[in-house]
């Protein structure tokens, strides 16, 4: 389908002129650095690629409990969920499925090899455990080995420089309960350590519209633990050790018995254990990082209390990166990634290595910042593949306005799970007719931005294609099939922020997306129009935010149109003393009835109250 450009521009003009944005203003973030773009700290002012940033203050203002809830407030990102918290979530960056997005936690890939297409279980990442989120949108994430969906980089919470104990408690609708404890040693002569314990529980609601017999609540429980230690610095060197555990259970509807009957008494148990060792070195002109990590995941699906299917997966990584400033104008970054992924589902066991080397060169002058990167991957099953990226940022003739352009490529090898399923006992023709091969992606973007005044804005046009996309056969349920040809996503993203006063800002975004398969049909659950309007106030003691998000022009997996909807959220918090903070928030303030996924309910209005104690 063709985008009606004049209609798009009109919608964007209206949205931008009214908008209010909870995100930090671009002017506020002008001096901050991000790591997701180049794998090293890079000034946000020098980036020619598109990046979203959510810091801890914004997370607390939004109040959302899980990663998908936070990400759906960002331009260029849409989410779907088959019910409430913990339900299977789809996160799509510029219309691309989540398994095409690299997800990193403290620099470690948290993809789950035991999940279909190695989809990361982002619904189990709790916001209470995070300090910062960075999202690189599009095909410019090659330094991480990313595909068309870009990169999501998560940073865990840590304590302050002083010894501290923070306790967060919240209660709310649908039986929601959340407790977070963060204990930190502060900086000492022996180093610093942080312990974080985060628990979320939910009674939930009946998620399926057709569950009229059992009609039970589909609840959720998540216990997450994080322990980290960083050694004292010695001549620029330091070491960090991290251990993390997630233990979650989700109740859901629509599963099958051993006799292939349908049941709505279903559970999904998920457990993940990971360990990481990182050695860092930095000085005025260089950064070095060496890391080793291992991650083990277990999933078990039960119907009517009996486990019918279970899998295990492992993800082991060894990485080394060095970045050096050469003179005043150049920075060179080189590195290697050695990855092993595998799974065991009781029918098949598979393991595969992927080794890669990459390099990136950036040149910065007064009137032009350019960079070029290349990455070579050597995959056990699919051989060698080369990806590249070029970016440029330059001021225009108009005061304060810069122009940006980026172009890049990527690839995704079929996951061990996809290959194993197609060679297993449940697959048949057409999925078994020919072996799967790698997907290839390419894309470009260009735009303008102004981050110099009280009104800051960013306007970006993007285009990206996937060649030979791999999908599950939803017609015959035969397995994973390769779709010949190119699927394409094009769109315009506009965001603005207006700092009306020192304590009050308004802003917003509009995203217009055309996502089509190789036959030109609209891809399911990709809204063509997303708009967000928000207002934010913060005087240091009190802060509030009002957010309205409109989603329109979607279809389901069968091409049927889904209803448009608008959801409003509101939050308010007050610092009572230096140690006590009270909060209240409302999700779906107007009690809007809507659905993310055909056949499933979405949450109605829910109120929450919380208290934060700093000891």
Produce the secondary structure layout.
Blueprint: H1 5-18, E1 33-34, E2 42-43, E3 51-55, H2 56-62, H3 67-71, E4 77-81, E5 89-93, E6 102-105, E7 108-109, E8 130-136, E9 151-156, E10 164-172, E11 176-184, E12 192-205, E13 218-230, E14 237-252, E15 255-256, E16 262-263, E17 266-282, E18 286-303, E19 306-326, E20 330-344, E21 349-364, E22 369-379, E23 383-395, E24 401-412, H4 416-422, E25 439-450, E26 455-472, E27 480-499, E28 504-516, E29 529-538, E30 542-552, E31 554-555, E32 561-562, E33 565-575, E34 580-587, E35 606-614
Parallel strand pairs: 6-9
Antiparallel strand pairs: 1-2, 3-8, 4-5, 6-7, 8-9, 10-11, 10-35, 11-12, 12-13, 13-14, 14-17, 15-16, 17-18, 18-19, 19-20, 20-21, 21-22, 22-23, 23-24, 24-25, 25-26, 26-27, 27-28, 28-29, 29-30, 30-33, 31-32, 33-34, 34-35
